[in-house]
Amino acid sequence: MALRATRRRILGLMAAGLGATTLAACGEAQVVTKEVPVEKTVVKEVPVEKVVTQVVEKTVTKEVPVEKVVTKEVEKVVTQIVEKVVTAPPQAPVNFIRYVSNHTAGPRGNAMKWALERFAQSRPEIKVRFEPAGALRDILPAQFAAGIAPDATLFTQAWFIEFLPQGAFAEISGAIAKLKDFNKADYYFLPDAYTDNKIDHSFPAPQLMNGPQYGMPFQAAISGFVANVTLAEKAGVTLPSKELSWTWNDWTEWDKKMTNPDAKTFGTQIANSPDFGWWPQMYSNGLKKPFNDALTKSMYDQPEAIEAFKYWVDKIFVQKVAPPIELHKELAAEFGSPF
What we know:
Blueprint: H1 7-24, E1 95-101, H2 106-122, E2 126-132, H3 136-146, E3 152-153, H4 157-163, H5 173-177, H6 229-234, H7 248-258, H8 274-284, H9 303-317, H10 325-332
Helix pairs in contact: 8-9
């Protein structure tokens, strides 16, 4: 680092130099006489300005704002609130029922919609919650077992017979008897479909409903033969013009003439249904009843039933004049039925 020479440092060095010189001059005494001229020293007085030191005390005043405290008397007003309990007039209870069905599309769905709309118009005080159920056969047994069954449902006679011994239904005979505009003769009756009869079920059934009642008929269906006249005429088939003028053998010959597998045209559609398939075929072959009067056994082991059922099934697998089940959906297309 470069040394910085200050005025104080220079004076110190000069003093050290003078000391060293003085020490070197101290030795044995020797007198030497020499005249040295002495310069006259003149002291000149130089006027110096007088320095006056004045102490000035500075007082700083700081203004601090102080809030003014005002005491004000306020009159306290106390409001007393008195609550009064008022009992509202009782409201009419809302009647609400759950209705479960798998009639949700096609003609059946339209019929269901029509019925619900008409019921809402005639009985607006009763609210209906419609619960569509595709797999009704699986849903209902589970709901019955869990104790959450719907208030009303729509299904076949076979299910009624199956679930009735389990106590699944409520009897409505007394409620129906109180209806002023109810006439039993206005309704189609099928024993043990919604009533507990256990009577002689020989075909034809009684015309007037009777027995403990648990439901009502909802839709009537007509079982019979419907023919495609255009297809029959093109195939050279002369359709019967009156009852009892043809036999099963005639039917088989007509089917053969109208069937063309390459064009996916078949003589007959076989319905896998008791109402629209097996039962009419069995009745036409002489079967009196599909099950015994105690509803504990089907009568499908009777010769009349076996012969009718075999004729029905052979049209699909032996004669091949009826479409197999895997073709039904394709042939039905947007119409919902292969026919």
